[in-house]
Amino acid sequence: MTDQSRCPVAHFDHNSPEHSADPIGSYSKFRSKHDIAWSEANGGYWVLAGYDAVFEAARNDDIFTSRRTPSGGDGLSVVIPKTPMHQHIPIELDPPEFRKYRKIVNLITAPAAVGRMTDMIAHYTTWFIDEVIEAGECDFSDIIGVPSIVTIDWLGIPTDEWRRYSSAHRATLASPQDSPEFKQAVEVDLPACSAQMHETIAARRESPTDDAISFLVQQSIDDRPITDDEVFSIVELLISGGVGTTASLVSQALVWLHQHHDARQKLIDDPSLLDHAVEEFLRYFSPTQALARTVTQDIEFKGCPMREGDRVLLSWASANRDEAAGFENPDELDIERWPNRHTAFGLGVHRCAGSHLGRAMACSLIGQILERMPDFAIDESKMQRYIRQGVNVGFRSLPATFTPGVRRSMSA
Ligand code: HEM
Questions:
Q1: Strand partners of residue 312
Q2: What is the pLDDT of residue 169?
Q3: 394 CB under 6 A from ligand 1?
Q4: What is the pTM of this model?
Q5: pLDDT digits (tens, 9 = 90+) for 175-207
Q6: Is residue 166 part of a domain?
Q7: DSSP-assigned letter for residue 382
Q8: Does the CB atom of residue 291 touch ligand 1 within 6 A?
Q9: pLDDT tens sequence across 350-362
Q10: In-domain check, residue 47
């Protein structure tokens, strides 16, 4: 039965097969009628689709909390429905508590820290391409291996089991919940990854080295040492927040470049255009489509009667296509668009902590693919998108061919 006190009401579900078939079209239809509306799906939630609404809500943590609350059940508070999992820090905290942790995370993700990772990122990108360059064919969805191995190496987790991390992330993002891959990920690989993270945290507490986990275990919160559990909450977020998103950005950009030869040639001729192109790929593809908050008190927000405990979806993807935000021809991808105030990394205090690392990995991958596989072609008849595209968009399969090249003799 429709809840008469929540209006306007829209027929919308970001987890539905209809939405997944065409997320951009689905949001565009939504925005043609509303900036904000209530949906009865997923137990009931507000959908914020207009740029202004998303902008204001994301910057108001007093009203729109990221904290875990009883509304919507147990689990990760920033998705609808909530997914049962260990609390993630700092994404599930509000200021002032939030700031104590975010300032620590900022120290390992700031531009200077990412600058020190340049050689490592280039090394793994080269290795990924070396593995396939002689064959002249590959599956570009395997690109998820690069952010996986970069992230776990940076953190200080042993890299010999990196495949477990990438296959677990790909399966949870891309495979049906009743598939053997999903079962393997949830029942075997993710618990094994968690165990390895716990072991590494304990080992670095005992004898620190120069990796990111060693840095984290030596920090203090309120004049007491940070706990292993808190470090785990940060480390798990750094891995789950960065691996699939970066792979999604790169693979979607490659499909678009396969379809747009002039733009591809322009980037090959002038790689200095890549930085702005990546910002536009972020806006246009929004790898993280939408995340959630919970309303803390009864309020009227932009004319909508919200109640304490209401769940709210902030659609970064929809805001990124809102012409009212000043994006000229928002449904056109212009690799030279600038300025580009996109929302793909979120807005407000929770704006992505890994944005510099995500950009660096994306530039390295797209740059080297254009340099070493300039004529790549994707078999569109065989490419497969993620089954659910409400939160993460991307490809589970992306077969490509290219003129074979030579290795640069790198091993992972
Ligand atoms: C293209 C790549 C990426 C995209 C599109 C992306 C997207 C986002 C978005 C939309 C948020 C906002 C969350 C919110 O408001 O609730 C966020 C937060 C976050 N991201 Fe990213 N991300 C990317 C790469 C990364 C990488 C590489 C890392 C890890 C190094 C990372 C770590 C984080 C963390 C820790 C947060 C939480 C920040 C906080 O709560 O203060 N992300 N990301």
A1: 46, 293
A2: 87
A3: no
A4: 0.97
A5: 888 889 999 999 999 999 999 999 999 999 999
A6: yes
A7: T
A8: yes
A9: 999 999 999 999 9
A10: yes
